[in-house]
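Please review the protein record below. Tell me whether the encoded fold seems credible here:
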Amino acid sequence: MATVSAAPAPGLQQIDLSKLNIQQLAQLKQQLDQELNVLQESLHTLKIAQGKFVESGESVEKMTPDIKGRTILVPLTGSMYVPGIIADTENVIIDIGTGYYAQKDIEGAKDYFKRKVQFVTEQMEKIQMLGMEKSKIREAICTMMEMKLHAQAQAQKPSSS
């Protein structure tokens, strides 16, 4: 019988899947399924954040001196807007998280959103790599479960004859 092993994250010991029984393999698979779901949810959340940072960066790009004095709609809530007039095209107030805002000049705001998009993208890449590793381990577990179930079926076959 072939030995399939799964190596978890660096620093943790390697598990020889061939030494686990079917129930232990099923529990390990279930745990990996849950972890993969959490990673998928994290990726989805990061994708939304990335989109908001990209959108904000694009909005800052549109802040040029020629739009000074234009009327715009200012969001008060997700579904309520009030008219406003652009008074300053050289500075913006940006949401930096957890209820805090900062005033930045246009170049500073562009740089801020560029760095945020880059950071979120890097985090997404890390999560994707981790997800791929966990998927490989899950596949190895499924393979070992199939092998053990097949061996179990073969062992029961002669006794029933």
